[in-house]
């Protein structure tokens, strides 16, 4: 549940210049530091989950744009 919350909060940090971009790694790192998420294994797990969620989100959004 906490990872989902982080994903939704971090989604506002996306680059949107020429199109929808990925959540910057620096924003993920800042979020983890701010909320006291620590420990190599925990950080690795969160980072993996957040990046996978982000990839899937971007793939769905790209697919929707192609249909339009």
Written overview of the protein:
The chain is mainly alpha-helical. The protein is built from 3 helices and no strands. The model has no long low-confidence stretch (mean pLDDT 93). The protein has a domain at 39-68.
Proportion in β-strands? under 5%
Q: Biggest sheet, in brief? A: none
User: What is the H/E order?
Assistant: HHH
Count of runs of 4 or more consecutive helical residues: 3
The mean pLDDT is 93
Number-wise, the strands total: 0
**Uncertain stretches:** none
Q: Name the helicity range.
A: 55-70%
Shape: elongated
Task: Round the Cα radius of gyration to an integer and report it.
Answer: 13 Å
Which secondary-structure class do the elements indicate? mainly alpha
Distance between the termini: 32 Å
